[in-house]
Amino acid sequence: MAKITILGAGAMGSGICTPLINAGWEVRLWGTWLDDHLLDACEAGKPHPRTNVPLAKGVKLYRSADLNKALDGSDVVVMSVASGGVPKVTEMALEGISKAKALWLTSKGFCPDENGKIQLLPEAIRTIAKQKGVTIPPIVAIAGPVKANECAEGKPTATIFGCKDLDVSRKYAREARTEVYCIEATDDETGVEICAPMKNVYAIALGIADGLEEGTGFPHHNLKAATFNQAVKEMSLLGQALGAKPETAYGLAGVGDLEVTGLSGRNKVYGVRIGRGETAKDALAEMERLEQTVEGVPAAGLATTFVEQSAPQIKDQLPLLRAVHEILAGSSLSVVKILSEAVLPKMP
Amino acid sequence: MAKITILGAGAMGSGICTPLINAGWEVRLWGTWLDDHLLDACEAGKPHPRTNVPLAKGVKLYRSADLNKALDGSDVVVMSVASGGVPKVTEMALEGISKAKALWLTSKGFCPDENGKIQLLPEAIRTIAKQKGVTIPPIVAIAGPVKANECAEGKPTATIFGCKDLDVSRKYAREARTEVYCIEATDDETGVEICAPMKNVYAIALGIADGLEEGTGFPHHNLKAATFNQAVKEMSLLGQALGAKPETAYGLAGVGDLEVTGLSGRNKVYGVRIGRGETAKDALAEMERLEQTVEGVPAAGLATTFVEQSAPQIKDQLPLLRAVHEILAGSSLSVVKILSEAVLPKMP
């Protein structure tokens, strides 16, 4: 039985245990120093506090001090911590990662290095390994429309594994597959990695369009659909500028993940608040008071800088990214006007 | 001032009057023999019964008997009747159409000829004209995420004009554009025409996924997103099989229109009923009792036949179309199972 160690016992780390156990893996779940209360709940047989679903039976739990034990002899390591924690956990787990046959990655985001250069997470991990002189196995970027709680519950779920070596993504897409957790394989790591944090930014825009009904008394379905369309286009364009395949954004990683992220979740809820008339600042303060982290907010800033650094030639082709950035910065223009200018077709 | 005559005074025919008036056209709206009550309401200054929005000021109304007067000297004719009425109205208006510089088409659907051969509407119109020995001007297929009521209200709206002659679609995309009604131009008439009726079929599937929350007590967001993804893929594949560009389905005509159709509307509502546990038959009877025509139901049957006739080589690549067809035919399998098998990735 192949052994897999998941680093990070949050929503996605714990959620992915269900298909892995059902697919016959020996699953070890390691909690960071921030995850003790999550493991406490799981050990007490209670639902996981982040998914509200009990952890799959048979998962072995490891506390933060037991990282080496958790990694010992594992065939696959899965990085599932919040994006900000990826560099630190990568360093801590580097030896175990180097001995594994693959490093899977469900963490998503932009990762600034000490010089302010923003990297996608696989590149950041490779850079750290290189600096330490350690060789790491192929990285499999995991994305697609996966709400962790539904994954944990065994609800039907489609996901995508992206590895530069297609044989590797195919192998694991077969080996982690269950009847309800079904995996597409691609060699487009970059395409998959670009879509994941960008969709959090664009989900804010979708939420704004949703909120306009409450704010103005009228639904703005046409504007929401045009916003969705523009978001997909921008994910595809940005991916292509970085060497990704255009179609990745048109599939599960882009269209699919944007659809699910726009249905619920904190980015969308934050957007709804703005759409109904709260200022971006007040809405964020309220989300923070409720202890609801809005990933799309820092992602919007990081994405903007990332584009300036890595794809400046297409900066003007991403008006929706700019629009979200402007709205979050507290623009005095109406959000309808800002969104409309960003997403409605230009004069042909 | 250019003259435009809209044939059909329903939701879309009346809705599109707003941008056309605002763009400076002389607009004539002709009602069919079924539209008298709609024109009555407009003439009385009441909201249009289908959009709940008053007709744009300055539109000239014509009753069904005054077709020739309505068409006299018009630069553009717009076909906006229900798809079943397109052949008859085409024949009636053929002389006026032949004298115009373009025929725009907001009607959408599959059109069976007397031998049961199913055509897309532009082809059906061209066939009728040819049979009558009449030359007609270029056809401009109009689609995209446009709720007619929002268009009528002047809410921000993105749409797409598709004409085989790109100069023609560009010309009208510029001339009908307003600040809030913005038009993309393409030469992919087929791509635009395929997406429009197919999205009604797929919107039923999205509704089913939505209804599962009520039916099973659990949201099925992951399944809904995978369904959305598969629907877009199938629209693109079917379009390509018929000579369309793959990207048309990934833009306003496909992704955009599916998004807006999945947000509300009768196809979605019908799907929700099935998702929450009604049989397809009972749900349809209830919709009929409420006088809510569900366009996606006949479209699912016509689309299936259309594929068999015109693109049999990709029949097996459209599992979601087949799934909707099976569900509507009253399959005894659970809808979750049928949808899952259709939309989750196959073993790679």
Description:
The structure is a homodimer of 348-residue chains. With 348 residues, chain A is α/β, with parallel strands linked by helices. Chain A folds into two domains: 3-187, Rossmann fold (3-Layer(aba) Sandwich), CATH 3.40.50; 190-343, N-(1-d-carboxylethyl)-l-norvaline Dehydrogenase, domain 2. In chain A, 53% of the residues lie in helices and 13% in strands. Chain A is built from 17 helices and ten strands. Chain A has helices spanning 11-15, 17-22, 36-43, 67-71, 86-99, 121-131, 148-153, 166-175, 189-216, 221-241, 246-249, 252-263, 266-275, 280-289, 296-310, 319-328, 335-343, and strands spanning 3-7, 26-30, 60-62, 76-79, 102-105, 110-112, 118-120, 139-143, 157-162, 181-186. In chain A, the strands form two sheets. In chain A, strands 3-2-1-4-5-8-9-10 form an eight-stranded mixed β-sheet, sandwiched between helices. In chain A, β4, α5 (86-99) and β5 (102-105) form a beta-alpha-beta unit. In chain A, α15 crosses α16 (319-328). Chain A is globular and about 60 Å long. The mean pLDDT of chain A is 96. Chains A, B: Pfam families: NAD_Gly3P_dh_C (PF07479), NAD_Gly3P_dh_N (PF01210). Chains A, B: Keywords: Lipid biosynthesis, Lipid metabolism, NAD, Oxidoreductase, Phospholipid biosynthesis, Phospholipid metabolism. Chains A, B: InterPro entries: 6-PGluconate_DH-like_C_sf (IPR008927), 6PGD_dom2 (IPR013328), G3P_DH_NAD-dep (IPR006168), G3P_DH_NAD-dep_C (IPR006109), G3P_DH_NAD-dep_N (IPR011128), NAD(P)-bd_dom_sf (IPR036291). Chains A, B: Its EC number is 1.1.1.94.
